[in-house]
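User: For my dataset I need records formatted as: sequence, then structure tokens, nothing else. Please produce one.
Assistant:
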Amino acid sequence: MIIGFVGAGRMGAPMVARLTSSGQTVRVLARSDEAAGAAPVGAESVRTLPETAAGADAVVVCVHTDEQVLQVCLEDGLLDAMGSGSVLIVHTTGSPYTVRDIEAAAAWRGVAVVDAPVSGGPHDIARGEITTFVGGSDDAVVKARSVLTHYSNPVLAVGALGSGQLTKLVNNAVFASNVAILGAAGRIGRQLGLHEPTLVQCLQRGSARSAALDGVARAGSAAAFAHSVGEFLGKDIAVVREVAADLEIDLGVLDSILEEDAPAR
């Protein structure tokens, strides 16, 4: 299988490593000598988007923002270089409208599109255990699975195109709320004279356990963890608010928690 890859950074690099280790041919976009030198072992570095997509069965986009996704796919010509029957996999967490706009441009080319935001970190990808929320047609999801299963488990089909993004945004709103609540819990604990690392260790063994709490334990404190994830969650929370406003959806208690004590952003 030939796979083009755009965005082999913090999250993308371990994806590429898993793909190459399973025998897939991966072409990674590397526009500079420095980027080419940093490409994962076993991947082929190419300098242009047409080279990345030429003859590829699938192209994976794992950049940071919606604007970058649109730039790469529409303005810089990635879709133009993709062949009929191939699939575009967008990992970037963002607005559901982005992938829908891309699909409108891709359909007449015979290129399938899925949105496939992930939940987890590079360590989960390295183990092949990151969770992926996939939105798209049944046929598109089947094509995407042949790539995703090399580094993701579970791969969850969640509905029509854009549903992956909507699912991830709800997930991140809940996660950010958990981080905010844990920050408040840490303050309460300190006021009560409790040692925060000991409190966190106890909460991990109680009914308060969560993925956010596990992150706090690894970071050493709620404040340290909030700082480490603030940049990424801040972007995603902004998209949650934008999409909710567009669809006239009331975020309810999540909105008040995020407004009062969300991670720094």
